[in-house]
Design brief:
Helices cover 40% and strands 24% of the residues. The chain contains 14 helices and 19 strands. The strands form 4 sheets. It has a 7-stranded mixed β-sheet. β18 and β19 form a beta hairpin. The chain starts with a strand and ends with a helix.
Length: 433
């Protein structure tokens, strides 16, 4: 029997992989059934699905293209109203804007079709890893659940991880970002238009707005801003302060949101946090996946993709080993350096998105890199390594560091595309990348 704690995105996908192997699977989820009634407030409405996540879904036979909108690049909106398009990859390579709630419903429905039992409004009270017994409160009952394998997909505040830390060293580190986020809904008015096949970014130095398209024709807009300080959420309390801020920094966006003040005051401020932990596995009894093991900030759009990749990698390792204890250990040892790498890249990409995309030297490096990619078919930029391949995150990070060092040096002088390519490939070979 497989017991999965968490019915968000990773939990149902993991359940599908296990159910298709013939296992009895039960998911326990604290929220009400999201297919019935209102969606939860405060969770990101849109997510970016890229190759890693798509691969994990396709391997289990799921096609979500009908709810996915391709985004072929970033459209940068400067403070003076100018727009600059920065293409993501080659040809028609794209990341996809996808509704969290729609994707969650698809995964839950498919899991139930495969015989997975899903118990909503059931909250973990206690977990004994040694006996592998979970206490779950459902209505007024306290259930005792004995399981062969417990899978913790219960997010960055994981109760299962907390219980594991009582019996082994987890070395959990939680890095709370100084920035938070607030979501707004953009509905273009009177013929106004935003390109629906771009991820829109309004970079403003230490903060930014982004917007992702929805199938309904509107955009989910997210403001990432410091929680405290001179320009921060704490300074935006009344109507005048909110309007003055948007009219100064995001004048075009303000025109798209007639009920801006109402939305801003109603919608909650979300917090950003990176969680890293060690020893995700406990003997042959328990494993952490997704945010329970490695919570990321959203700036590379890889949180969901990394969690989905967890499900695929676990299945592949079990297929090789046919031994649960060995699979749990190898899963942790193989995933840990890669999820640490994408955690670090996600933080760095925030700096790139808010500060560097409008920087002239950064744009020059991107233009020079585009020349390399155009001339050499086997050259893959760092963003493409992360978003358009299944190359391990750790290798993508280290290759990206090589690329940046070479381009930073060569772009300061007359750029030679052949020399740049040669230096990058030579460095790869030296570092066994």
């Amino acid at each position: 029997m497989r017991t999965i704690i968490g019915g968000g995105l990773a939990g149902p996908l993991f359940a599908l992989y296990q159910a298709k192997r013939g296992h009895q699977v039960t998911i326990y989820e604290g929220r009400p059934d999201p297919r019935i009634g209102a969606e939860s407030i405060g969770r990101s409405i849109n997510l970016a699905l890229s190759v890693r996540g798509m691969t994990a879904l396709q391997k289990i036979g799921l096609d979500v293209s009908q709810i996915a909108i391709p985004m072929y690049g970033r459209l940068i909106h400067s403070i003076d109203g100018q727009q600059t398009f920065q293409k993501y990859g080659k040809g028609d390579q794209a990341i996809f804007s996808i509704s969290r709630s729609q994707l969650n419903k698809i995964l839950l429905n498919e899991a139930e079709k495969q015989g997975v039992q899903i118990v909503f409004e059931s909250r973990v009270v206690n977990y004994d890893p040694k006996e592998n017994i979970i206490q779950i409160k459902k209505d007024d009952q306290l259930l005792q659940i004995q399981s062969e394998l417990v899978i913790a997909a219960d997010g960055y505040n994981s109760k299962i991880r907390e219980a594991l830390s009582q019996v082994q060293n987890m070395n959990v580190t939680r890095s709370n970002e100084s920035h938070g986020y607030k979501e707004l809904n953009i509905i273009p008015q009177n013929g106004q238009h935003l390109d629906k096949n771009s991820l829109h970014i309004w970079p403003r130095g230490s903060f930014m707005l982004i917007a992702l398209p929805n199938q309904t024709g509107n955009w989910t807009c997210t403001l990432f801003l410091a929680l405290e300080g001179q320009v921060s959420f704490e300074k935006l309390n009344n109507k005048d302060e909110i309007l003055q801020f948007f009219n100064h920094y995001f004048k075009d966006v303000a025109q798209y949101i007639p009920d801006l003040v109402e939305q801003f005051q109603k919608n909650p401020i979300g917090r950003l946090c990176t969680v890293k932990t060690e020893n995700w596995n406990y003997e042959d009894k328990c494993i952490l996946i997704g945010d329970a093991a490695h919570s990321l900030v959203p700036f590379y759009g890889q949180g969901m993709n990394a969690a989905f990749e967890d499900c695929l990698i676990f299945d592949q390792l079990y297929n090789q080993n046919q031994d649960m204890k060995q699979t749990l250990l190898e899963f942790y040892l193989s995933r840990k350096p890669n999820t640490d790498a994408i955690s670090d890249m996600a933080v760095m990409n925030f700096i790139e998105m808010r500060d560097l995309v409008s920087d002239k030297f950064f744009q020059l490096k991107k233009q020079c890199e585009a020349q390399i990619a155009l001339k050499y078919d086997d050259y893959i930029p760092k963003y493409s390594l992360v978003s358009f391949s299944n190359i391990p995150y750790d290798i993508a990070k280290r290759r990206g560091e090589v690329i940046d060092e070479v381009l930073t040096d060569l772009c300061k002088k007359e750029f030679d595309v052949d020399e740049a390519y040669k230096q990058i490939i030579d460095r790869y070979a030296q570092l066994n990348l």
